[in-house]
Design a protein that fits this description.
Shape: elongated
Number of helices: 10
Radius of gyration: 21 Å
Structural class: mainly alpha
Oligomer: single chain
Number of strands: 0
Helix content: 55-70%
Largest sheet: none
Amino acid sequence: MVLGALMIPSTALVIPTFLLMSKFELTDTIWAVLLPSMLNPMGVYLMRIYCHESLPDEMIEAARVDGANEMYTFFKVSLPIMRPAVTTVFLLSVVAAWNNYFLPQVVLTSQKLFPITVGLTNWQVKSQAGAASEQVWNLVTSGAFLSIVPMILAFLFLQRYWVGGLTAGSVKA
């Protein structure tokens, strides 16, 4: 089912997403853009594959034998091992939400809530209609350059969590 959900393009889900957000009265809020970006089938697939491959059942069983309950086992054993996958899925979701163009244009009406992609396009359209197009074009290009700064900072600050192979040698073969 997850692989089938990956085959559906995100643009095909914009209208159903809009109807769902309007049913819960979330249109024209930041949540109408963030919630669909956080719940993606690619993240579910990546986490399942990563957990299946890098989280040995023997470590969880050892924690249970030592008397750890499920919450302790999850937060103290499983989650530190899954940190690279959680970081990757988080960054993919942030980049997808940051670069999303079509969904915010449909679910948002207030210009102050538009993400930078939609806002820059609106400036560009205004520059084509107005006389001072060179000045607005300079603003659009410098805005496009500045729009990558948060993504660069996110990758720089989160790169230390991409340490892999934490469980190598933890279980006897």
